[in-house]
Amino acid sequence: MKKNDLFYQVALSLIDGIGGKNARLLFMYCGSAQNIFQKWTAEQFYKTIHGIGEKTARKIESQKKEALKKAEEIIEKCEKNEVQILSLFDKNTDFPDILRNYEDSPLLMYYKGSAKLNDKKIIGIVGTRQATDYGRDAVESILNDLAPYKPLIISGLAYGIDIAAHKIALKLGLETIGVMASGLDIIYPAEHKRYAFEMIENGGLLTENPFGTIPDARRFPARNRIIAGMSNALVVIEAQIKGGAIITADIANDYNKDVFAVPGSIKSEVSLGCNLLIQQNKAMLVNSGAEIIQFLEWDNSQKVNKQIQLDLDSLELSEFEKQILKHLKEKGQTQVDILAYQLSKPIQELNPLLLNLELLNLIKSAPGQKYSLKN
Q1: Would you list the domain boundaries of the chain?
Q2: CA dist 10 to 22, 51, 212, 302, Å?
Q3: What's the pLDDT tens digit per position in 275-314?
Q4: pTM of the full predicted structure?
Q5: Rounded distance, CA 4 to CA 8, Å?
Q6: What is the DSSP letter of 305?
Q7: What is the torsional sign of CA 59, 64, 70, 76?
Q8: In CATH, what is the architecture of 114-296?
Q9: Tens digits of per-residue pLDDT, 80-93?
Q10: 20, CA 20 to 30 Å: which among 146, 236, 294, 303?
Q11: Which of 76, 70, 223, 199 is CA-nearest to residue 85?
Q12: What kind and span of H or E run contains 345?
């Protein structure tokens, strides 16, 4: 098996305690996953990288061999089952760009499907597992309104509102993606297998978990952050006071997403969560998809692109500074470590170039070492 950097990224993702945040730190200092495994020692990790403690460093060292072995098995299964491995750090994969700037973004995701995960309008729909006819009717009404705009519909493949969103999207000819809390080989709940197979042909299945992962309780909130992060807007239809839909809405608010909620009867327990989101100004009350379209300005063909239009050839900048501007124009706000990796530039060499562009009033910085074009 050819051991490229993606192979080592799969191995890295299998080490306990290595999520997106730690992976970013390791990549920033080591330059690649292969370097992490082949060129750095545990002592170098914790003595050099602020944020990587000795315990984590020792885990990397002690689990390397087993992780590499498992990575081979996973990649072979992916190739056999036509599953794509999407990498946070690899610009050549279809990893959702919208997720790249969240600190808790997955390092890797496994994807089987036909839908493109970038350059589309993406609407997340979540709600209770105990859906009523009112909730299912609301899903159908909203998706009927949205259908002419061909959005990608994402949800969690669960009972209730989730599966209603997937089924209605399929009926309307909309692509739909199920974000899973398990490996791709374990469809949960099993009753939804036939819809899952249909979605692969008309959307897809997506997870951060490798083959064989059982959907235990802790994986559902992790799954919810992917739904929230990938959505341009999140719609909550029937939700109890506590549960996965409310968790997803809270995460979406933390990510500064547009959140909508369909109100329900004050006597219905499965609408109390939606009503509370509206009452607490955590979601905008909507009664139809037309209101969502209006709020998101999908009908405004004259909507101005907020990113400045740069004539790169007219700027007296170095070729690499132009590359930075071109990247930010195409990808939007990007964290400095991701930018360094995608442009193959050491971070210590990139920082002064970013400072110069900021002084020229061409880019702006944001908390978390994020950069974007100046409006």
Answers
A1: 5-90, 114-296, 312-373
A2: 14, 21, 15, 44
A3: 999 999 999 999 999 999 999 988 864 343 444 445 555 6
A4: 0.81
A5: 7
A6: P
A7: positive
A8: 3-Layer(aba) Sandwich (3.40)
A9: 999 999 998 887 77
A10: 236
A11: 76
A12: none
